[in-house]
Design a protein that fits this description.
Layout lengths: L20 H10 L14 E2 L11 H9 L8 H14 L3 E5 L2 H12 L5 E4 L4 H9 L3 E4 L20 H11 L7 E4 L12 H12 L5 E4 L3 H11 L8 H10 L3 E5 L10 E5 L2 H14 L10 H13 L3 H21 L11 E5 H4 L9 H13 L1 E2 L1 E3 L1 H4 L1 E2 L6 E2 L5 E5 L7 H16 L7 E5 L10 E4 L1
Parallel strand pairs: 1-10, 3-4, 5-6, 6-7
Antiparallel strand pairs: 2-8, 7-8, 9-14, 11-14, 12-13, 15-16
The chain binds pyridoxal-5'-phosphate.
Pyridoxal-5'-phosphate binds next to α4 and α5.
Length: 457
């Protein structure tokens, strides 16, 4: 088998500022050992997130020039709307400035105290928008989805029996909609099978509950279906995506993921009455319905990105990159969440540094070492981000997993960048016994991971 090359050529380059280990030690100390507080210019390879970090194509940049900035009825809106409808088939498409704006509008209309919104796993912003309006966000992923070593091909699937039981327990009249996150971001970027989407629709239809997709990574999910689900090998990813959307009533979308742009999103649905209400909210807070908080040029770039993201060569290279990183980490022996998902590798910090207890943040110890060793920015997803404090004893209550996410921006880094990341991972793994934990010296009451300062233990 030949090397799977990046299916694009590079036309514009952005230089990376190289730093030495000594410089990085000083930089991260200055930043209170918090990677969020480091300037992007002081990072060599930035794997903090895959959100809004994609490289746009020459056609997308051409679209930026073609953007029609008319306030109402812009040509760019109609191109955007037509492309979203071609892929999703939904009757109405409402542009928003990013994914959480679509969520905010939807849940302003549908979430309130006494209402429950089940999902495989809600993403943080989705959960926050549901809870902000008083409703409850319920996660019902299959048990395999919570086991970091289970090789189930569709670990993002929702547990259909639990869903049915849950609907009967709280009553269908208290469930305004059910959601499926594709791929399941908070569960490690794991896909949902077509069968699971169809059967979820069958369950909720019995109770007249609509089903929405949180469609941020719909194209990556479609590719996994093509590769892993019987009967889909000969279908195109676009056909598979269309089938995924055909079973549901609407979607929220962050275009910062699988629309290959740096900003944007949308809310789309078949319920024309609900869409009219959503447009009224949109006009008050985001903008007129043909731009929704975006510039016309952004809509052009999204339309083009949605076309490109479904190209088989792109998806093959994209998913293969993550798989390749997994294979090489296996050779190094470094533990990670398996199987690799669609957009990131999650190092398993508990196994990586068993000598560091949860209250000394093993993920942070690894993230620190990856930065000092090679200038790589990763993201701790463990006790710092999701840990809680016992209200009585003040003792640390850790989340089930201690992870370090290496998220891969789309079309930004080449194979040699990824090989470099692996070399750095290998060097850090080799000296894992010497890594030390951290403790807080400053900590905000909410979302503390963004601004906290640490000291090394
Ligand atoms: C990123 C993301 C969102 C929120 O989108 P933003 O554009 O960041 O507001 C919602 N759901 C999932 C699954 C995401 O990955």
């Amino acid at each position: 088998m030949k090397t799977i090359i990046e299916p694009f050529k590079i036309k514009v380059v952005e230089p990376i500022r190289m730093t030495t280990k000594e410089q990085r030690e000083a930089i991260i100390r200055e930043a209170g050992y918090n990677l969020f507080m480091i300037k992007a210019d002081d990072i060599i390879i930035d794997l903090l997130t895959d959100s809004g970090t994609a490289a746009m194509s020459s056609e997308q940049w051409a679209g930026i020039m073609r953007g029609d900035e008319s306030y109402a009825g812009a040509r760019s809106f109609f191109r955007f709307e037509a492309k979203v409808q071609e892929i999703t088939g939904f009757k109405t498409v409402i542009p928003t400035h990013q994914g959480r704006a679509a969520e905010r509008i939807l849940f302003e209309l549908l979430s309130r105290p006494g209402k429950y919104i089940p999902s495989n796993t809600h993403f943080d912003t989705t959960r926050a928008n549901i809870e902000y309006r008083g409703g409850e966000a319920i996660d019902l992923v299959i048990p395999e989805g919570k086991d970091p070593q289970n090789l189930h091909p569709f670990k993002g699937n929702i547990d259909l029996e639990k869903l049915d039981n849950f609907i009967n327990k709280v009553g269908p009249e208290n469930i305004p909609l059910c959601m499926l996150t594709v791929t399941n971001n908070s569960g490690g970027g794991q896909p949902v099978s077509m069968t699971n989407i169809r059967q979820t629709k069958e369950v909720v239809s019995r109770y007249d509950i609509p089903l929405f997709l949180d469609a941020c990574r719909f194209a990556e999910n479609a590719y996994f279906i093509k590769k892993r689900e019987p009967g889909y090998a000969d279908k195109t990813c676009k056909e598979i995506a269309r089938e995924m959307f055909s079973y549901v009533d609407g979607c929220t979308m962050s275009a910062k993921k699988d629309a290959l742009v740096n900003i944007g999103g949308f809310l789309a649905m078949n319920d024309v009455e609900l869409a009219n209400q959503a447009r009224n909210v949109l006009i008050v807070t985001e903008g007129f319905p043909t731009y929704g908080g975006l510039a016309g040029r952004d809509l052009e770039a999204i339309a083009q990105g949605l076309e490109e993201v479904l190209h088989e060569d792109y998806l093959h290279y994209r998913i293969r990159t993550v798989e390749y990183m997994g294979e090489k980490l296996d050779q190094i022996g470094a533990p990670y969440l398996k199987p690799p998902g669609g957009h990131a590798i999650y190092l398993d910090a508990k196994t990586f540094t068993p000598h560091i207890p949860a209250h000394e943040f093993p993920g942070q110890a690894i993230a620190y070492a990856l930065y000092v060793e090679g200038g790589i920015r990763s993201c701790e997803i463990g006790s710092i981000m999701f840990g809680k404090k016992d209200p009585v004893t003040g003792e640390h209550i850790p989340p089930p997993l201690e992870l370090v996410r290496l998220a891969f921006p789309r079309r930004v880094y080449t194979q040699s960048h990824f090989d470099y990341v692996l070399e750095v991972c290998a060097a850090v793994y080799k000296k894992r016994d010497q890594l030390r934990g951290f403790r807080f010296i400053e900590e905000a009451p909410l979302l503390r991971h963004f601004t906290a300062r640490f000291a090394m233990v």
